Amino acid sequence: MRPTIIAGNWKMFKDAHETSAFIASFTKALTFELKNVKVVVCPPFTSLAVAQPLLAGTPVALGAQNMSPEDEGAFTGEIAPKMLKSVGCTYVIIGHSERRQYFGETNDGVNRKVRKALASGLLPIACVGETLEEREKGVTDSVVSTQVKALFKDVPEQDATRVVIAYEPVWAIGTGKTATPEQAQAVHAMIRGLVTSLYSSETAGRIVIQYGGSVKPENAVELLGQPDIDGALVGGACLKVESFIPIIRAGIAP
Q1: By the 8 A CB rule, do 52 and 88 touch?
Q2: What pLDDT is attached to residue 177?
Q3: CA 42/CA 118 separation, integer angstroms
């Protein structure tokens, strides 16, 4: 059985003091058994070292929002995988649409980061998704397939199941719009079928595919109830305990 992974992407919110206050409230509210659910929080780089000791001894894992594909060197402003590991990170988000849109990240660059994360012992949450224009043109499957094939390039099958895929339709991120459960399920099923063709049905059956894009308590149960949706990459709703906790509860199988 695939685990359900609920990850909170804080984006550029919460300084070190706000991080401490949030995690104290958040972990206090996690009073229920998570069963098959894994929870990840991904604060900004400046809050990772603050978050790590506060999460120690809890079931919540720590993730970063980006990383360099290089081990070290003269790359001003970049963060190496070993730096993330040294502050307790287990996961790292790679190729988020905001990184692609605002910082020029490419499919090839995403692949380099995925392979480096795997080689460094980090679990990549690799993001794929189409724009509104691409969906309206009817090329969603083509765009997403290209992105998925690129992120798995030169990734051996034994490592593929360590990759978490996050399907995030770009038009639904931070807009309040959400793909319907049927729309999201259709793309998730397509991705799983593609992974089958790239590797095997066994590998495809083990890979976690999250949905992201305006996930909130009101739609989480229906989205997470779809057969190929294995969790959520949550944006704005993860910044408040009162909205993140219900989403986590929605991921727990009845």
Answers
A1: yes
A2: 77
A3: 18
81, 83, 85, 91: CA torsion to nearest 10 = -50
Query: Known catalytic residues?
Result: 96, 168
Q: Find where tokens 């976690």 sit.
A: 208
Tell me the helices (H) and strands (E) count for the chain, helix number first. 12, 8
Q: Residue 110 gets which letter from DSSP?
A: H
pLDDT of 66 strictly over 90: yes
pLDDT digits (tens, 9 = 90+) for 161-205: 999 999 999 988 777 777 899 999 999 999 999 999 999 999 999
Residues 6+ apart with CB under 8 A from 147: 95, 107, 110, 128, 129
Please report how many Cα atoms fall inside a 13 Å half-sphere around the Cα of residue 132, on the Cβ side.
7
Short-list 183, 184, 238, 177, CA closest to 39: 238
**Residue 48 near residue 89, CB atoms below 8 Å:** yes
* CATH number of the domain located at residue range(s) 4-69+76-250 in this protein: 3.20.20.70
Please say whether the beta carbons of 250 and 219 come within 8 A: no
Domain boundaries, the chain: 4-69+76-250
CA dihedral 103, 238, 223, 176 (to 10 degrees): -60
SS3 (DSSP) at 166: strand
What CA–CA distance (Å, rounded) separates 74 from 147?
29
What is the full DSSP assignment across 20-52? HHHHHHHHHH--S--TTEEEEEE--HHHHHHHH
What's the confidence (pLDDT) of residue 176? Answer: 77
User: Could you tell me which of 113, 231, 110, 129 has the C-alpha nearest to residue 190?
Assistant: 129
**Tokens (6 digits) for 113:** 């980061």
